[in-house]
């Protein structure tokens, strides 16, 4: 069976006079691309097809799982970009329509059954949703159950997003929307649908699906035209599509001030100086720290971050310093939350560069952590530790009750509204958000602190958190509850906690070797390198 787009691509590829084609005039590369389309290109095809007319999407839907089918859309999309033709117009091309019909015949005959398939989560993405309001019968009981299921999908999606599993996050958002599709609009259904659409947009952006992100944010705005988060998502999608003018307008409707299009050299230098002073960089009122005394390594690793003064704000600064010293190493903003002691955090960072074993590398990483902590705190964390704080020991049940009280306070409608306003004013920057939120959070924390016998200030909150962390180190229930409470503090599942989860770039052992070299400033195959593939006879 003949495919016109394939024939055209092969002709271009075989033209030896033009070696600038994307296959380097190598038909093997073309063949592999067309029949084994790699995941990044599969996702681009999925994004391209978002602009296809409904009838084309319906023809493609039953066979979208096959790489060769997706390749036709991928190739057409690239051609549209190259020619400067609107994608929607290119997807109506007569030759492409003929190819889609040929593919349909091939699929119906079963001849595509042995063809390579794409990522499984993409297979049903073109399936049509049922018509809104078509669910019959519609009762309060059915509505309640549907909302419960939709919230479960939303929750699973948020967890996946937090774990950098953006494909799963996207899938769960789509599943939630599919569940709600046939329900009547209005009330809690519309609110949940809007939240799922915004989450879908956020996950789509992480996957490079800018057109899908734009479509989802537009759908959310169709529910609530004044939804600032939806406008923010739309702005991000437009920026990813290089539609900068529209992106600035959308950002303005999100209640944010668009950044200036140009900056003077003086303004850039001022911004750099301001940022450095916020981070407590060496040379800005903070002494430059050198190396950690090896004799103090054990004591250093026993430190609890919050106990020595690393709060939510300085935790952001700490991560930025670590990222500066460990370029390209994926360091999450949640490092201090997930690994509350210095030793645990060091182990996690070593794990990131596949260097768990060996005192030498551990010492180097400890030194990096120590310098970062010195800079953000303004002093050596091993010194100035003597302070008169309340040392309270809680049981698991007591810790869970305290965290429940805090979470309930954070989930009050008034506090959620305050958190959203603070996030907007901070332009969704994590550090600025936390600085502004801290005094407002303390107002709802004070009654709980005083009831427990702590002073109603940041010192009291630090002492309480230290006591809770000690319980969390031994109890998974308390650890999970502590995480949920921190998420609630930052606006809940759809708040700043989720917005600012960092996207970690993929890395392999070759990346790890490079990162170990950066850490040791030496040859990654030198004496400090642990060859995990070696077999040593004893």
Automatic annotation (TrEMBL):
List the Pfam families: PP-binding (PF00550)
Q: Where is this region: Disordered?
A: 252-279
InterPro entries per UniProt: ACP-like_sf, PKS_PP-bd, PP-bd_ACP, Ppantetheine_attach_site, TPR-like_helical_dom_sf
- Which SMART domains is this protein grouped with? PKS_PP (SM00823)
Q: Please give an example of a GO cellular component term from this record.
A: cytosol
Answer yes or no on keyword Cytoplasm.
no
Q: Per the record's keyword annotation, is Repressor included, yes or no?
A: no
Ranges for domain Polyketide synthase-like phosphopantetheine-binding come to 283-353
**Molecular function per GO:** Hsp70 protein binding; Hsp90 protein binding; phosphopantetheine binding
**Do you know which SUPFAM superfamilies this protein is assigned to?**
ACP-like, TPR-like
Q: Where is the composition biased (Basic and acidic residues)?
A: 267-276
According to its UniProt entry, the protein's GO biological process terms are: protein folding
Q: Which UniProt keywords apply?
A: Phosphopantetheine, Phosphoprotein
Under the heading PANTHER family, the entry gives:
TETRATRICOPEPTIDE REPEAT PROTEIN 4 (PTHR46035), TRANSLOCATION PROTEIN SEC72 (PTHR46035:SF3)
**Protein name as catalogued:** Polyketide synthase phosphopantetheine-binding domain-containing protein
